[in-house]
Amino acid sequence: MISIQINQTPVELVAACSVEEALRTVIETQDGMALAVNGVVVPKSQWHQTLVAQGDELHLFRAVAGG
């Protein structure tokens, strides 16, 4: 088991997986969403290849543009 946090909510994963797979266990992502893993923004194009590790903190948020 791997213990991580997604938006400060503890999540238990059966095995190591990508952040994309981990997010699917909790929420359906939508366009315009951004992700930071341990404080580092990960481009959506890399979600499928970025692996989670024990203790990782994922923060999913809606990207907002403005002026």
Which spans of ≥5 residues are poorly predicted at pLDDT below 50?
none
Structural class assignment: mainly beta
Helix amount: under 10%
**The CATH superfamily title:** Beta-grasp domain
Mean pLDDT: 88
Number of domains: 1
Shape field: globular
- CATH topology: the name is Ubiquitin-like (UB roll)
**Number of alpha- plus pi-helical segments:** 1
Organism: Saccharospirillum mangrovi
InterPro entries: Beta-grasp_dom_sf, Mopterin_synth/thiamin_S_b, Thi_S, ThiS/MoaD-like
Pfam families: ThiS
Protein name: Sulfur carrier protein ThiS
Supply database-style keywords.
single chain, 67 residues, mainly beta, Ubiquitin-like (UB roll), five-stranded mixed beta sheet, 9% helix, 36% strand, Sulfur carrier protein ThiS, Thi_S, Mopterin_synth/thiamin_S_b, Beta-grasp_dom_sf
